[in-house]
Each structure stands twice: as C-alpha cells, then as structure tokens.
Amino acid sequence: MTTWQPVCPLTAVPPACGVPALVDDDPVAVFRTSEDELFAVGNIDPFCGAGVISRGIVGDRGGEPTVASPMLKQVFSLRTGECLDDPAARLPTYPVRLHADMVEIAHPC
Amino acid sequence: MTRTLVVIGHGMVGHRLVEDLRERDAAGTWRVVVLSEEPHAAYDRVALSSYLDGKSAADLSLAGQGFLTDPAVELRLGCSAASIDRTARAVTTTDGDELRYDALVLATGSRPFVPPVPGHDLPGCYVYRTLEDLDAIRREAVEDQPGVVVGGGLLGLEAANALRLLGMRPHVVEMAPRLMPIQVDEGGGQVLAKLVEELGLQVHCGVATQSIDAGPHGGVAGVTLGDGTTVETDVVVFSAGVRPCDELAEPTGLARGERGGFLVDDRCRTSDPRIWAVGECAAVDGRCYGLVAPGYSMAEVVVRQLLEIGDEPFPGADMSTKLKLLGVDVASFGDAHGSSEGALEVVYANTANGTYAKLVLSDDASVLLGGVLVGDAGAYATLRPLVGRELPAPPEHLLLPAGSGVDAAALPGDAIICSCNNVSKTDITTAITGESLTDVAGVKGCTKAGTSCGSCVPMLKNLLGECGVETSNALCEHFGQSRSELFEIVRATGIGTFTDLIRKHGSGHGCDICKPAVASILATLGNGHILDGEQAGLQDTNDRFLANMQRNGTYSVVPRVPGGEITPDKLIVLGEVAREFGLYTKITGGQRIDLFGAHVEQLPAIWRRLVDAGFESGHAYGKALRTVKSCVGNDWCRYGVQDSVAMAIRLELRYRGLRSPHKVKAGVSGCARECAEARSKDFGVIATEKGWNLYVGGNGGFSPRHAEPLAADLDDELLVRLIDRFLMFYVRTADRLQRTAAWIEAMDGGIEHLRAVVIDDSLGITEDLEAAMAEHVAGYTDEWAGVLHDPAKLSRFVSFVNAPDAPDPTISFTEERGQIRPQPVTLPMPSVRGESEEVPA
Ligand code: SRM
Ligand SMILES: Cc1cc2nc3c(=O)[nH]c(=O)nc-3n(C[C@H](O)[C@H](O)[C@H](O)COP(=O)(O)OP(=O)(O)OC[C@H]3O[C@@H](n4cnc5c(N)ncnc54)[C@H](O)[C@@H]3O)c2cc1C
Ligand code: SF4
Ligand code: FES
Predict the structure, then answer these.
(1) CATH of the domain at B31
(2) Is residue B438 part of a domain?
(3) Touching check for A34 and chain B: CB below 8 Å?
(4) Per-residue model confidence as pLDDT tens digits over B336-393
(5) Does B472 reside within a domain?
(6) Does residue B699 line the site of ligand 1, with CB under 6 A?
(7) Is the separation of the CB atoms in B577 and B595 below 8 Å?
(8) ipTM above 0.90, yes or no
(9) Tell me, what DSSP letter sits at residue B537?
(10) How far is the CA of B840 from the centre of ligand 1 (A)?
(11) Residue A34: its chain B contacts at CB < 8 A?
(12) How are the residues of chain A apportioned to helix, strand and coil, as percentages rounded to the nearest 5?
C-alpha cells in the first residue's frame, strides 16, 4: 500500500526549481518544471554520495525533462531517474502528486 | 650503444634540431653536447623586437625545463667552438676542452653585415641580432633624439620601430629605390613608405650612407648621406643584411658556398659524412636561407638521418612573408616580382586608404604565381596556398578580405596551409576527422599549424567547416546563438527574463549550459539580485547559494578582502566565526581567507556575522571579478615606486560584482620586481616611475599565460579608463567560459586589434563601454546583504523543506591537523562533460 505524505505547499517549489525533502528518513529531491509538472527523485548524487541533486539546474534534453547534478554536472532524466550521460547510474524515483495545493510524495514500502 | 652528437650553435635551428632528436630518440641512442656562443640558451630571435616591447628574456626563451634538465643533453653556455679536427673527430672549445663526436652539426647562424663605411666602428654604432645588442641600444637611446638605421629591409624597419618604441625619432636609409626591396615591388614600396612616414619615420631611399661622423667625445655624432644630407644622431643601427658564420669552414677544410655558408647537399651533408650544417649558416646546394622555417625543415632532414628513419631531401622553402611592421601589414608570396617568363600582373592600388595589392599570374592568366600586399594583408592566408594553382575565382575576387574570396574547398589537398610549420591541407583535414577535432585550438595542438606566425588561422577555421565540424557558436541545443550574440540580443531588446528570451529566441526549456550563461548576461546588464524570482533557478551550482559547493555538499565562505589588506579586528572576526561554526580555515592563493564546511542552512547565520562586521561577498563563487592581488607597495617596501595597495583596493572595489564570461583576476605590483604576480592575471598593473603599465590576458590554471602589455606609463585615471573599456569589451564579446587570454587569442588581429579598440577607439565604442561600466559601479550592492534582508531568499537555505533544521545525514567530518575534514567519499574523476565547468577561484 502506498501512503501519500504531504511535503510542502506548491508555492515552496518555484517553477524550474527543486527542493530537498525528508521522506521516512530518505532524502528526496522534488522538482517542478517550467510547465508545472512535478517530479521526485533521490537527492543523493550516485557519483559522489552527496545530497545535492535538488540544487541542480532543471531543464530538458531533446524534450526529456532533466536535472543536472550541481557537483559534476551529470544529467538525469526526471521521469525515469536514468543518468543520460552514463546509463549505469540512476536515481530512485518516487510517485508525486498535488493534493489541495500541497505536494505529496508516496514512499514505496 | 650511445653515440655523441656535438651541435655548434644554440640558436633557433640548433635548438629545434636537438629538441626534435630527443623527442624521437626514445631509446637514447644519442648523447648531445650543444655549444652556445651566446650567454643564453636559445631564444625566439624572430620575436626579438618584443624584448623592447614588454617581453623579458625569459619570455623569449625556447628552452623549457624539460630541455634544460634532460640528462642526455649538455648545454654549454658562453662557450664557442674554436676549431674542428676531422681526423680525430673532435671539437676544441674556446675554454680549451676537447669534445669527441660521432656526428657534428654546424648551426652557427649568421652575423649582421656591417658595410665598411668610414666610422662604422665608432662607439654608438650597433647591430640588431641578439639580446645583448638590444640591451646596448636601449641603454644608448635618448628620447626625442633622432636615430639612424642603415638598411630599409625587413629587419631595418624592425630596428627603426625599436628605436621608435624607445622614444627616438628614427631615420631609415636604404640604398635601393624602395623599402623592403626583396619583398615588395616598386608600387608596394611607395605605399609602404607613405604609411611608414605617417608614423613619424623619415625615409631616405635611393641614397648610400657615405660616412658615420664622430663628435668631440669620440663617439657617433652624425651620419652623412650620399646626397649630402646630414642627420645629427648619437645612435646608428646597421641592418644591411647578414653573412653566414662560416669561419670554421676554411681551417677545417670544408667547402663554402659561392656567397658564403657551409656548402651542403640537399640532405644538408658537407663533404665529410659525419658533418652536417643547418639553418642560416648552411648553403644548401649553394643557397642560404634567411628565415627560420627552412632552417626547421633542414633540422628535420638531419634528425631523420641521425636516427636512420628516413633520407628525404630538403624540400626547398617557401620564402613568403607576412608581417606587421609598425602596425602596417606587408605580405609577399611566391614570385612576388613577376620574374617568371611571360608573367602577367594585376594591380589594385588605393593610395587614399593606403592599400596596395598585386597578383602575379601565368602568361594565360590562369595560374597564380605570387603577389604583394601592403596596407591590408587580409587575403594572404587564402592566396598563399594557391600559388602554383589554377585560380579558383577571378583575381579581383581573391583580393577581398580573408575568407570572403575563396573557400577552403577550392584548395587541393597538398596545398601548404601553414608554411611556418609545413602543414598541408590534407595533414589538417586528416587530423580533424581522424582525431575528431572540433576547434582551432585542437588543430593547433595536433598539427602545429597556426602555432608560429598565426597568419594561417583563418584557413584553419575554414577547414574545420569544410570537414563538417560545426564551428557554429551555438550555445547549446536550446539556443542557436553564441554567448556574445545573446548578450547583444538582451542588451538591444531589454528582455529581462530567461523565459522570455528562450520563448522568443530559443527552444525547449533550457539546461545547465544556457541557463547560467543567460543568468550571467542578465546580471551584467543589471537585472536586480541574482536570486530574484526565476533567476535563482538559472544560477550555476555555486551562485545558487552564493558559496562554493565542496565535495561533500557543504559550502565554503570567502569574504572579500580588497587588495589583501585586512585590519586585525576583521581578522579576529574571521577567526571567531570559524571557531563558532566549526569551519576549516585556510589562506587562499588569492590573498584572502576561506572558511570551509558550512552546511547550507548555516550560511545565513555565518554571513549575518560577517556582514555585521563589515565584510561583503567575495564572489569566490561567481564568474565575476575575484581578487585584485597586491604587493605591499611604496608605503613600506624600499623598492616600491607607486602605492600598489591603494590602487589594488580601488580596482577591486570598482569591479567587484561584475559578472563576466569567466572569472576575472587581477594584480597590482609596486615595481618591476612584480611581487603581486600581476602578469599572471587577466589584467595586471605594474608601477613605473612615471605611472602604471597595464598588461592583459594572463592566467595561471591549466595553460598558464603571461599577460601582454596593452599600454605603458598611464596615470591613475587613464589606467582605470582603459581597464573599464577592456573589461566591458570582454564581458560583451567573449564566449561562455572563455578567459581573457583565450578571448584575445581567438580575436582576429589579437592584441593589436584589442589595442585599436580600447585605445584608438577604432570601433567608436569606448564611450559606450565606459558608460556601461559606470552604470555597473553605481549599481553595485552586496549580494549577501541582499539575501539577509529578504525572507523569501532566506527560506531557500534549508537542509529539507519539511525539516528545515534536520542535519543532512550524508554529511560527516573527521579531524585532521586540528581541524575538520570531510569524511572521505571517492569522487569519480573528471565529469562526463569533457570541459571543466566548475567555476570558482
Ligand atoms: C580556494 C582556492 C585554493 C586555495 O586554497 O588557495 C581555490 C579553490 C578552487 N579553485 Fe582555484 N582556487 C584558488 C586560487 C586559484 C588560483 C591562484 C590565484 O587566484 O592567484 C588559480 C590560478 C590562477 C588563475 O585562475 O589564473 C586557480 C585556478 C583555478 C582553475 C583554473 C582556471 C583556468 O583558467 O585554467 C579552476 C577551474 C575553473 O575555474 O574552471 C579553479 C577552480 C577551483 C575550485 C572551484 C575547484 C572546484 O571545482 O571546486 C576550488 C573551489 C574552492 C572553494 O570551494 O572555495 N581554480 N585557483 C583559491 C581561492 C582564491 C580566492 O581567494 O578566490
Ligand atoms: C630582429 C629579427 C627578426 C627576424 N624576423 C624573422 C621573421 O619574421 N621570420 C623569419 O623566418 N625569420 C626572422 N628572422 C631570422 C631568424 O631569426 C633566423 O632565420 C633564425 O634565427 C636562424 O636560426 P639559426 O639557428 O640558423 O641561427 P641563429 O638563431 O643566429 O643561431 C646561431 C647561434 O650560433 C651561435 N654561434 C655562432 N658561431 C658559434 C661558434 N663557433 N660556437 C658556438 N656558437 C656559435 C650564435 O651566437 C647563435 O647564438 C629574424 C631575425 C632577427 C634578428
Ligand atoms: S613589487 Fe616591488 S614594490 Fe611591490 S613588494 Fe615587490 S619589490 Fe616591493
Ligand atoms: S603560416 Fe605561420 S603559423 Fe601557420
């Protein structure tokens, strides 16, 4: 069963930005694209082990919504979590929804 | 078995030979002893004149550390060869040593020829060939006094320019009816004389130098010319041609060429199979070559024989030349004088703007044989490789400025594109496709083309294009424009947001390349705080939190310490803040203090303490002005001649916060000892007795480069104005992540062009540049203070949105040497992007 956890109001996530959140002790990066789509992926950069993904630049590569790690700039798909520069690496992804103006994340148990 | 090679002469060619041999002789089959009559290791004689224009002997040196410490090479400075014993196979040096050889290379170069006119040996007579010659001329030069150069060839004009740089009023005496008689024809010579006279040189053509006249003190007091004219002067420089240094030929029993030089065959061999001659002292099949490129080919020919890897003959030489003398372009190539049978000439002369061009064509006007260009040599790069080829376009089209006339496709594969380094079109295109090169720098690195005189660089660009390499300056997949084009679009349209810009001029949603680039442009053009509204999401890693991200996700804090000057009270505050927040403390290479290991949520509290104590952002995180490093200057230093600290502080405060294509660093030294290392900075200022010298385009980092002189002896105000113009011009026109050195290098015309723009106002924009800088200075506010006053911005400095004070579980520290240190995480080596994107420092 998935339980949705409210994380923050939508206004706390500016368009084309990310914020870090703690979901059951897991660091998660929540993103809102410039077209107001929401995504949630793991916050820990698999290349360096630091919790920094939410601070990356949001954009697109060939239409695919992406975030670039601020550390060494590898680009990840926000949809699948896959690293577009190195298919061996990926970020976990989390279901995310907007519920009564609150961003909610489901933690798969 | 190791054999011994003795090389006599450590000039440009001797050096190239040894370098080339050592590069290819991995097995170390040769040990080399080099005798150098001069007290210096080989230096760039071609660039000798720049020794009077800001370059030092060290700048000109060709011998790098690797060479000087090579155990297989013994270099004897200030030591000449006195004699050669061919039977014993030994060279006796002037120190009395005897050196046995298995092979001997003569690379003794030439000496200036001093015509035997009466008085030619009086004190005050000089030649122009070595660093010592130039030192002597510099000592003797007196400002505003006339100086006389005997000889109006290429070197004579260089010598005249040297006198001009030393403040003298040069006269040039040339026996032939025109200047540069070897390179240019009558018409070209006339245009050249006119251009040169406009620069203040007095030209006397078609007259002989009758005598050098002594004054009562016994030194030179004047020169009398064949037409009776007398010029009063204390300084005479002879530049009437050179003679090969071949004195060793006769006693050794080696033959000389008809006009001197060691006579060698087309493999550079003398009659003794163990002795070769290369460079200016070699008479290859009887002919001597006075340029460096043929010397380099000879060196290669000999190295191949020494290593037994080939026996190709000397390929002959392209005697084409292009130079900028006194700011005047002169080029001649191929059969410049139309001496081939039936040659036709097409001449375009424009005396109004001082340009002259002549093409020499075959008798049926179909094949280009040579040409002369004066005043504007833009077409040289395209024309020279076409010599001996069918004309690809009507002659008048070929004379249009470089690139517009012919495209690279018109050239056959074996056409030599870079004559300095003998690189053909095929060599270049093969390298481009084989090594997947994408830019001119890559081509230079791979083929050596373009690394000497630089005149072939426009063709290299064309060839990249021909190979299908998009040298388009498109920023990324979202913008087809270059950074400088986007800058102009934003400036002209007043667009103030990324969303607006990408909608009207780009596509998609942007990425980590275009967003920070646009953010920087918006910031330069004054669009409020860099974390305002949507701008926050555009900023690169470090700008995003106004601090430098470290490998474990913490941040470093670097407050500005202008000029490196800091009060004890402020030092104490830094210490207290570091202790209170448990930060690692280190003095940086930029004369300030870095506090490392701050959690993102601690940054506001740390900065509140710092701002209250009078600190402000040091922009260590931004592509912006970093530090203006300073020496202690004349307040304290016994050598100082100006107040370098005050000037450094003034400049740092003036340009702080200026967003630029890459980081900008500066330095100010109080005297020529240069303790602030100003010449390794993007702009460097060095004090003189009369004011300040300004240098631009230096950096350390991956490819260290010394800054080049832009202007000398400036007063404070002029100095600041020139830096204003220089920086604004850089900010507007450079590419993303292009530091000033690379920007100047990529500029058509290089530093000369830059000088024309910022000093002579050749584009008519200096007023605009100064106004833009004034606007920047007036609009400056401290970015950190701006954050502390704004709750919306402060709200982003949290570890987690839903748990703002919970510490990030990925961060932990150990201890080392009494301070914290990040718990080691192994970072993968360079990122998947080929290029270093990370900003700081
Ligand atoms: C702190 C400091 C080292 C130190 O402890 O002394 C430093 C630290 C870093 N430098 Fe530096 N550089 C520091 C002085 C220098 C200097 C020396 C100087 O400025 O006199 C140089 C060579 C001079 C030059 O830049 O021309 C220098 C050349 C570089 C380069 C190469 C730049 C180039 O053009 O090749 C990089 C990489 C880049 O910018 O792309 C770099 C990048 C970095 C980065 C950002 C590396 C990174 O990716 O994290 C480091 C971040 C520091 C931080 O997080 O605070 N750092 N760095 C120095 C800070 C100076 C300051 O007060 O602002
Ligand atoms: C001001 C100036 C500008 C120039 N501009 C250009 C240009 O734009 N393009 C171009 O192609 N060329 C140019 N040249 C010419 C170029 O410098 C020479 O062609 C080149 O230096 C020749 O190299 P080399 O090794 O043969 O001779 P050199 O560089 O003259 O070296 C010979 C060395 O051998 C030493 N030597 C002589 N006899 C002995 C001995 N018995 N024992 C030990 N050592 C000895 C000499 O002292 C000297 O150091 C210029 C020259 C000058 C002076
Ligand atoms: S550069 Fe000159 S003035 Fe400055 S500290 Fe060094 S010696 Fe003194
Ligand atoms: S022609 Fe001189 S560097 Fe290429």
Answers:
(1) 3.50.50.60
(2) no
(3) yes
(4) 888 788 888 888 877 777 888 888 888 888 888 888 888 888 788 778 888 888 887 7
(5) no
(6) yes
(7) yes
(8) no
(9) G
(10) 6
(11) 499, 509-510
(12) 5, 50, 45
